[in-house]
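Lecture notes, continued. The same structure-token format from the folding unit now serves as the input rather than the output. Read the line below as a description of shape only.
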């Protein structure tokens, strides 16, 4: 089974904040860190230092998608954020990015295993496929 973590964050969010959310959400879901296949986000986070540092720290590939690609998952989100839409053009970065990459990697439908988890600076979701 392919497990993909989707991440969203504010500009300048540090790696420790992202790692804390990552580990807490996985622990709550009873999922071991090493089972995660890849990280996903929106293309505007492609150069975000905290996200890049997390990918390096976990030794995971990071795939980013455009707002238009992520918008296709709008009807499958557990939560639609008008704030996220105002900033990015899609209603949920973490959930839609996780679903998009899980489906891309498996060539089939994905589902959210862990719906959106949020801190003041970041969001996390976990999708699975295969």
């Amino acid at each position: 089974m392919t497990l993909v973590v989707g991440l969203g964050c504010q500009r300048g969010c540090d790696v420790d904040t992202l790692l804390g959310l990552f580990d807490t959400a996985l622990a709550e879901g009873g999922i071991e860190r090493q089972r995660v296949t890849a990280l996903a986000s929106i293309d505007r986070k492609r150069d975000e230092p905290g996200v890049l540092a997390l990918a390096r720290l976990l030794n995971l590939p990071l795939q980013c998608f455009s707002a238009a690609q992520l918008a296709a998952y709008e009807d499958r989100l557990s939560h639609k954020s008008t704030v996220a839409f105002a900033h990015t053009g899609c209603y949920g970065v973490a959930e839609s990015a996780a679903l998009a990459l899980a489906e891309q990697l498996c060539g089939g439908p994905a589902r959210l295993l862990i719906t959106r988890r949020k801190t003041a600076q970041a969001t996390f979701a976990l999708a699975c496929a295969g």
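Point for the exam: DSSP finds five helices and five strands in the chain.
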